[in-house]
Amino acid sequence: MEKWLSLWSAGQKKTVEDMTAIREAGFDGVEIWAEHLTAENDMELAKAAGLKIGLHLPFHDLNLATPFEEVESLIFKINEQWLKKLQEYGGGHAVIHGGMAWASEGHLEAKEVVIDRLSRMQKMAEELSCTLLFENQIPDKLNYTHIYPSSVDEWLEMLDESGTAACLDTGHLAVLGASLEETISRLGNRLASVHFSDNDAEGDLHQLPGDGVTGTSTAKLVDLLQEHDYNGPIVFEINPYLYSLQDIIEHPSAK
Ligand SMILES: [Zn+2]
To answer: How far apart are CA 98 and CA 62, in angstroms?
Structure first.
């Protein structure tokens, strides 16, 4: 199993020395954070340091459940640019968010739209030698809108209908309140990547493992994944506003 780091965790400013430190701390790869102002240069820095490269596609302004065709076109245009860059750098996977329906009342109709867009994006990724990974999210507790996917059942349905693989975010799952072991088992060979962090089971804090209440240590996660023949990466996705890069790569959980 490979150990990776989300570059979100390294903050906006990254240096050649940072990338070397990440490599020397035993990380095999990094997930480029496309929303970072320096994301393109980060691919170059990661490559120069001998790190494998994955990508977290942008999502802040790119709602995959949007009712606007103009936004849909923009999403496909921007993501194609990123996937082509990823291919140039020999990257293998890209994580995507499912977006949110404008109103919870219309969530079933909007779900079909998201599945259609995910299917088309998956084909685009495949043609560019990339695996598209659809990540689990946290539901809107107010039920004003609807986030995709808001439950493990909805996630499995959307993965199967769109033909995408899964990126399991352990922190999102803890806030949702679903069992990690049962979810890994239900995902089976759909599971291609894991985002790993801890929290207080209330908010998406992205703490270092052991600093929250989820009780999932690195050793426990590795055991659970090995029981299910998982051999993808474990990507530490840790909050850069709570920890420094040094805190993260030197933490016992990342050894
Ligand atoms: Zn994540």
So the answer is: 10
> What is the residue type of 5?
L
Q: Which of 96, 95, 34 is CA-nearest to residue 65?
A: 96
CA of 5 to the centre of ligand 1 (A): 11
How many angstroms separate the alpha carbon of residue 195 from the centre of ligand 1?
Answer: 5
164/96 Cα distance (integer angstroms): 10
Distance 58 CA to ligand 1 centre (A): 12
Span from the CA of 169 to the centroid of ligand 1 (angstroms): 5
Q: Token pair for residue 190?
A: 């759909």
Condensed to tens digits (0 to 9), the pLDDT of residues 210-238 reads: 999 999 999 999 999 999 999 999 999 99
* Ligand 1 centroid, distance to 175 Cα (angstroms): 12
- Classify residue 140 by burial, with Cβ atoms within 10 Å: 0-12, 13-18, 19+: middle
Mean pLDDT of the chain: 97
Strand partners, 191: 166
- From the CA of 40, how far away is ligand 1's center (Å)? 20
CATH superfamily of the domain spanning 2-199+232-254: Divalent-metal-dependent TIM barrel enzymes (3.20.20.150)
Distance 109 CA to ligand 1 centre (A): 26
